[in-house]
Each structure stands twice: as structure tokens, then as C-alpha cells.
Amino acid sequence: MSDDQPPSRHSPQKSWVEKISHLLSGGEPHDLEDLLETLREAKDKHLLDSDALTMIEGVLEVSHLRVRDIMIPRAQMVVVPREAKLEEISEIVVDACHSRYPVIEGDRSNVVGVLLSKDLLTHVLQNKTSTLVGQIMRPACIVPESKRLNILLKELRTTGNHMAIVVDEYGQTSGLVTIEDLLEQIVGEIEDEHDEHEDEGYIVKRNEHEFIVKALTPIEEFDEYFSTQLTTDEYDTIGGFVMSQLEHMPKKGESLVVEHLRFEIIKADNRRVHLIKLKLAK
């Protein structure tokens, strides 16, 4: 057969990694960093688009990250007491707008179950607001801080759980992680029905004292809107300002107080911050 003829369709197919490596004439990758570098070069050569590269990087990182790397710390969890009546927790639920809440007994280190908002709503509609949280809570999924994210994701998908309570080596609660947190490590930010839409601008006013601010909001626009003076040459966006103040990549749930401004990270992955809740001191 002539060397100029196309290969038979029955010939062994090269993997996509081999094809990319061959096209880049750099040989096959020898470790993870080599593979990532190859993929980034493939993007530069338009063999991959940005979204595909981000997802591939996310998949590779998830297999190396552990629960402790992305969990929401115990101090920042929105919790409800086991002995509280449903009518007593309504303000907490309305303000947080979560679908699940850790149920504690005593203090935050002792999570004894999970309250689902749909269970709460069912009882409220039936005028059973005197029911105790402990009577309708569900069992909590407990995982150690050291569990790898790829393993946890598989377990959550298998069991149907959407939230896991993270415990330390002594069995005390150290935080929580949701299936959304895990998926966002792969695909980036996931918007739900409570997230602000892209076409609503950089800053969305919820009430006189609370705002949702996109991390990419230009710092000059932020200053003009809130009559502040945060602008410097060190950063261009409000997300950059928050990162410079915290001196690390913020995680979902972290907060920062600067004068009369309280910043809370409500959307972030291991690469960047997406959304910030801003509260003004009353």
C-alpha cells in the first residue's frame, strides 16, 4: 500500500492525547504538568476551546484535591438547631435561600442531621409550624476531610445525597461540601435559580443594605456606586481587591470586613471568585 494512501478505517485509533502530542511535535507527556502544558498549547493552536480546557483541567485537579480543600468551614455554615420549632427558623431559611441546612445539637461541632427546605415547606403549608426540626430532619452523609473529591463525587451520585458533612480525625464537624461545589471544580460556576443573571449588570441591589456584586466589577465602578475609595494600581476589579486583602484565593463562604463593608464570597472555584455578597453596616 502506498504511503500516500489514507490509513484503513480499521487501523488502531490514536487517543486524543496522542493526536495532540503528535500535532505539537513535542512527544507524549511524561507527567501531569506536561499534560496540562500540552493541553494549553493545544488551546493556543485552536485545537481546544477555552471551555473544554477549563473542564479538562478541572477533571484532572479533582482527582488530586481533597474535601478539606473546598469545604465550607464550620464557622461559615448556615445551621438550624435540632430543638427549634419550624416557625423559629423561618428568618434563617428565607435569608439564606439554601435547599439544605445542617441540623446541630449543642454547637456547630455536632451535626446530627440535615433539614431539607422541601420538608420544611410541606409542614409549613400544613400549618405544622410548631413541629421541631429534629422531627423532620434526615440522616446526614458524613465524610472525612481527607477523602478525595473524585471519590466523593462518585459516592454522592450513587447515594443521591447532595450535601456531605465533613468531620475531622476526632469526629467533630469541620465543615460541609455540596455536590454543586464538586461539580464547580470541573465546570466552573454553576448558576441556580437564586443566582443573579448575567444581564443584570455588575451590581444588583437586594435591599438598602445588601447587594450582589460580580467579582469582575471594575474597582472604579464599585467606588462610584458605593462612594468608596478602594481604587489602586494593584488590582482592576473588586474580586482582585478581596483577594489582595485576604492574601489567598478565597473560598465560598469566606468573609472580609473593611470599614463599613462586609464582603462574603458566595460563588468561587479553585481558579477564581465569581460572586460576592456585600452588606453595608446599618
Automatic annotation (TrEMBL):
The superkingdom of the source organism is Bacteria
Question: In its keyword annotation, does this UniProt entry include Transport?
Answer: yes
User: What keywords are annotated for this sequence in UniProt?
Assistant: CBS domain, Cobalt, Magnesium, Repeat, Transport
Ranges of residues in domain CBS: 71-130, 136-196
GO molecular function terms noted in the UniProt entry: flavin adenine dinucleotide binding
Annotated Gene Ontology cellular components are:
plasma membrane
Q: Which CDD domains match?
A: CBS_pair_CorC_HlyC_assoc
Question: Which InterPro entries does UniProt cross-reference here?
Answer: CBS_dom, CBS_dom_sf, CorC_N, FAD-bd_PCMH-like_sf, FAD-bd_PCMH_sub2, Ion_transp-like_CBS, Transptr-assoc_dom
Q: Which family does it belong to?
A: Belongs to the UPF0053 family.
**Function of the protein:** Plays a role in the transport of magnesium and cobalt ions.
Give the protein's recorded name.
Answer: Magnesium and cobalt efflux protein CorC
